[in-house]
Each structure stands twice: as structure tokens, then as C-alpha cells.
Write a structure and sequence with these properties.
transferase, cell wall biogenesis/degradation, 15% helix, L,D-transpeptidase family protein, peptidoglycan synthesis, LD_TPept_cat_dom, alpha/beta, 34% strand
């Protein structure tokens, strides 16, 4: 998996985003200076497949409040979602699913899928009436049966594009 450095990112934060030890990232990138990154720099993140080798892609619109699942660039399904509320915006950009945790407890419903952005994920909810609204702390909320279905379909490493 290749990560492209964005403005303001540090190697330590990138390691936290991918839940990958900093030492593993440094080892996978010989010659890298962990204290000097530049915008557009390509960094190998070990342990994840190249998202381009996965037939699935997830496209999320925060304004329209939908999540679309594509396989081989063909729309398979569209799901309603809830997104971040004021002061807790859902992050915009390209991410990947880095892990899955069934029954995470609390307000996260019956499934949690972490994104490659620390503290953010796609998850179920214990409040189905919140779907369709801007109410979360930045995560993508789905109906429990929808997030369970999605988690059964997409593998770790699936690309997630979040936009307005």
C-alpha cells in the first residue's frame, strides 16, 4: 500500500492513522528521513494490499448522506448514512479500511470498520433514527444490517473516497 503525504502530515501521525508501528514504516522505506516529509511523497505502508488490486471501492457523499459500493467500477448498492455534525466534520479524502471489529460496543452498533485516519470509521449505530442526519463525531454511521452486509463484502484495504 502506498500513502501519498498531504500537507501537515508527520510520519508519526501516518503510522497512527494506519495503526502500523513507526519502525515498520521506516524499515519499509529505506533512506526515508522520518523528520522531513514533503507533500506528494510516496510512503510504503507495509501489511496492506494495494487498493488498486481490490475490485471494490466505497464512495461517500457527506452532503447527500449516502455510501455507494462499487465493484469493478459498477455500482452495486447505495446505503443511507449519518455523517459528522458541526465542529466534528467527517474527514474528506482518500482512505482505506484497515480493520474490522464486530460488536465493538457502545454507540457503534454491531460492526466497526476503521479508516486510515485515526479515530474515524464506518460503523453501525444504536440509534437508527440518526441515519440521514449530521449527528456523529465525524464517523460514518450506517444501519446495523447495512454495515454488517458491507463488512462481509469488502476486504481490508478497500479504498474509501469521502467528499462533500
Amino acid at each position: 500500500m502506498i500513502h501519498t503525504v498531504k500537507a501537515g502530515e508527520t510520519l508519526s501521525q501516518i503510522a497512527r492513522d494506519y495503526r502500523t508501528p513507526l519502525s515498520s514504516i521506516i524499515a519499509a522505506n529505506p533512506g526515508i528521513n522520518p523528520n522531513v516529509l514533503y507533500i506528494g511523497q510516496q510512503i510504503v505502508i507495509p501489511g496492506f494490499p494495494d487498493p488498486n488490486t481490490i475490485p471494490y471501492k466505497i464512495d461517500i457523499s457527506t452532503e447527500n448522506r449516502w455510501l455507494r459500493l462499487y465493484k469493478d467500477n459498477i455500482l452495486q448498492k447505495q446505503y443511507p448514512i449519518a455523517v459528522g455534525r458541526m465542529l466534528h466534520d467527517t474527514p474528506i479524502g482518500n482512505f482505506i479500511i484497515i480493520n474490522k471489529a464486530p460488536n465493538p460496543g457502545g454507540p457503534f452498533g454491531t460492526m466497526w470498520m476503521s479508516l486510515s485516519k485515526e479515530h474515524y470509521g464506518i460503523h453501525g449505530t444504536n440509534d437508527p433514527s440518526s441515519i440521514g442526519h449530521a449527528v456523529s463525531r465525524g464517523c460514518i454511521r450506517m444501519h446495523n444490517q447495512d454495515v454488517e452486509e458491507l463488512a462481509r463484502i469488502v476486504p481490508i484495504g478497500t479504498g474509501v473516497f469521502i467528499h462533500p
